[in-house]
Amino acid sequence: MKRSLLICALLSATASSYALADAGLDLAKAKNCLACHSVQNKVVGPAYKDVAAKFAGQKGAEDMLVQKVLKGSTGAWGAIPMPPNPQVSDAEAHTLVKWILSLK
């Protein structure tokens, strides 16, 4: 019985991470984030895996990054500013940032 519960818990966690990956990538495509970013390589802005590595385990990172997505930022990754993204809702920004922070 314990083994069955453990297997169910693992499958549920795996399914959740796949759902987040699909939702995050789909949202990044839909909101045109990939015009300046990529998962693996620097484009205009940093690679998402580099953002995930920089902020891994930092308390408050999600909320701080959500604000950067919504309001834009300057100087965090060099001289090129990230413009604000008024087409992204607060909920969408949280989904995007959770996905980015989940990348390895």
Can you offer a commentary on this structure?
The protein has helices spanning 2-30, 48-55, 61-71, 90-102. The chain is an all-alpha fold. Helix 1 packs across helix 4 (90-102) and helix 3 packs across helix 4. It is globular. Mean pLDDT is 85; it is low at 4-18.
The number of helical segments is 4
**Poorly predicted ranges:** 4-18
> End-to-end distance, in Å?
33 Å
Mean pLDDT: 85
- What's the number of extended β-strand segments? 0
Class from helix and strand fractions: mainly alpha
Q: What value does the Rg take, in angstroms?
A: 15 Å
Query: Per the principal axes of the C-alpha atoms, what is the gross shape?
Result: globular
Q: What about the largest sheet?
A: none
Q: How would you classify the quaternary structure? A: single chain
Secondary-structure element order, N to C: HHHH
How much helix, percentage-wise, in residues? 55-70%
Residues in β-strands, percent? under 5%
